[in-house]
Write a structure and sequence with these properties.
This protein has seven helices and eleven strands. It has 258 residues and is α+β, with helices and mostly antiparallel strands. It has one domain. The strands form two sheets. Strands 1, 2, 3, 4, 5, 8, 9, 10 and 11 form a nine-stranded mixed sheet that branches. The protein has a two-stranded antiparallel ribbon with strand order 6-7. Helix 3 runs antiparallel to helix 6 and helix 6 packs antiparallel against helix 7. It starts with 15 loop residues before the first helix and ends with a helix.
């Protein structure tokens, strides 16, 4: 089976579909191994999973201690860490060409956000994924029919609900220096994405890129709002007179290219 097809949604569900197709024994270790093997190949970052518990009959999957590392050049040790992720699979879809995931529920993730030049850690990961997908698709076109039969039918994915709740954002690098304590433990608005891959055939890696792209927008929007609030607080504290406060405000705005 093609390499990128083994990588489930942002490596949150990496290897689940493949593992269920391969067999039902020792699914937990299979998913953990698949996550940590194939995840870094697509994200170009460290990917770790503590353990996975699977109920083949109900389609319930519990993923513990998930970590998505940061790309090279960023100072924070991780981009996402989460103690618990719950997945509900449509077991009837596992023998079809399209794997249906009813729900992915990410509870209490810690998001580490870091700017670098005109980009950030999340945009960098998304770009890494897109490059990997493009590379794999290009390679697929060169395969002859015999190779295609050997690798099997291409699997697609549908995610009916992707939910993130109780998330926190920690700022890193220059952002943390500018925001201080106000840049740690910022509440991330709840996220609920629906019907990913329903209207257009989507590979697991492409689904991951969609989700990270949406999360990037929510994270940057939240951070920008915090920066505005901080500037307002600085202005009120000195009645708009202090030159020092003005310089701090300019520094904060400069971090976002304003």
């Amino acid at each position: 089976m093609k390499k990128y097809l083994l990588i489930g949604l942002g490596v949150l569900v990496v290897g689940i579909a493949a593992a269920l197709i391969i067999g039902v024994s020792n699914l937990g270790p299979i998913i953990k191994t698949a996550t940590e093997k194939f995840g870094p190949q697509i994200t170009k970052t460290e990917v770790k999973l503590g353990s996975a518990d699977v109920s083949i009959f109900s389609g319930a999957v519990s993923l513990d201690d998930f970590l998505l590392g940061n790309p090279k050049g960023f100072s924070m040790p991780s981009a996402v860490e989460c103690d618990k992720i719950s997945v509900k699979l449509d077991t009837d879809s596992l023998t079809t060409d399209t794997i249906v995931i009813n729900e992915i529920y990410v509870d209490g993730p810690v998001i580490s956000y870091e700017k670098k030049g005109n980009t950030d850690n999340f945009k960098t990961i998304v770009n890494n994924i897109k490059k990997t997908v493009a590379s794999e698709k290009k390679a697929d076109k060169k395969q002859d029919s015999a190779a295609t039969e050997e690798t099997g039918a291409e699997k697609k994915i549908v995610i009916e609900n992707f939910i993130v709740k109780n998330g926190k954002i920690n700022m890193g690098g220059s952002l943390l220096k500018a925001f201080g304590d106000d840049g740690v433990g910022i509440s991330l608005p709840d996220i609920h994405l629906k019907d990913i891959g329903k209207d257009k055939e989507t590979s697991p890696a492409e689904a991951f890129a969609i989700i990270l792209g949406e999360m990037t927008g929510d994270v940057t929007g939240t951070v920008t709002q915090v920066s505005k609030q901080l500037q307002e607080q600085l202005g009120k504290a000195v009645d708009g007179v202090s030159e020092g406060a003005g310089k701090v405000g300019d520094t904060i705005k400069g971090l976002f290219g304003d």
